[in-house]
Design goal:
about 130 residues, mainly alpha, 6 helices, binds iron/sulfur cluster, binds zinc ion
């Protein structure tokens, strides 16, 4: 992979709280016809189900159990979740105020503060 098609940043914010950390990943990618019950049971104990589900929808994960839902169960949620985004700065999921809103409010605020601290170009100089 080149830098030109760099992936979305990994969602470090919520991933550290994932209940599936250390659980066999195969559980979350069952073969066709295999039970999803065990994976979903892990998700039910998870504190970041909403973030995980929003991330999977936003990044169009085609396979696996995310946020306690299979790909088929996630499909109808896609449209509804258009209002969720993955922050380009920190990778957390957040609720969008508009379609081109690309960073969470904390990162937007930080960027805005940084801009305000930049020295203004002096007026009337050659
Ligand atoms: S919701 Fe399920 S898949 Fe997502 S982080 Fe939690 S345990 Fe893992
Ligand atoms: Zn952010």
């Amino acid at each position: 992979m080149t830098n030109d098609d760099a992936p979305l940043p990994m969602p470090m914010g919520w991933q550290v709280e994932a209940a599936c950390r250390g659980v066999d990943p195969d559980l979350f990618y069952p073969d066709r016809g295999e039970s999803t019950a065990e994976a979903k049971a892990v998700c039910r104990e998870c504190r970041v189900t909403a973030e995980c589900l929003a991330y999977a929808i936003e990044t169009r994960q085609q396979f696996g159990i995310w946020g306690g839902k299979s790909e088929r169960e996630r499909r109808p949620l896609r449209l509804e979740h258009h209002r969720y985004g993955v922050c380009v700065a920190c990778g957390d999921t957040f609720e969008r105020r508009s379609q081109n809103h690309r960073a969470c409010s904390a990162c937007s605020k930080a960027a805005e503060n940084a801009r305000q601290r930049e020295p203004r170009p002096a007026q009337g100089q050659p």
